[in-house]
Amino acid sequence: VFFGLFLVMFLIAFVSADQISDDDFECDGFNCGSGWLGDWSVSGDCIITGLGTPIGSYHMRGQESAAGTCIADRNFNNSIYYSSNVTFWAKAALLETGDYCRYYYYDGSAYTLLLEITAPGDDNTYREYSYNVTQYGLSNNAGIRMRQFGVGSDNCFIDDINITGSGLIGPDTTNPVINS
Question: 26, 32 in Cβ contact below 8 A?
Fold first, then answer.
């Protein structure tokens, strides 16, 4: 009986995924969601808009501008897990040759390209993408990046971002809450 209970507890600890961070942009701003180390850091023409999202009413769009680019970064801590997964919905529209939408994982020191959308893959249809990022390294300053590049009517979108972790490393050192 003891071994069976131990095995169940072991499997729960290493198989179930904990929510680290999430963002569905439903606050209509760059500070939505939970579990992040701060708000979105954006440069160029990145906006939160309510046009055609798969889940909810808002999403982030990198759009055309004179600068022709949008870079949006947000950081989280996945260093306390044995493995981590990044899931998001993305789409692109109206890309010309040489334009792109790129989605990256940041391991605290370098970016790894997870997804690139170019013409003719810009069919304005949301798809869900999921990546196990453990192989790239986990960090107390990990992050995700969306980068849009193009001049003209080029649009990159991201929505419903979920970062999960599995298998806590070491014991939980959080102080217990004691109610008197």
Answer: yes
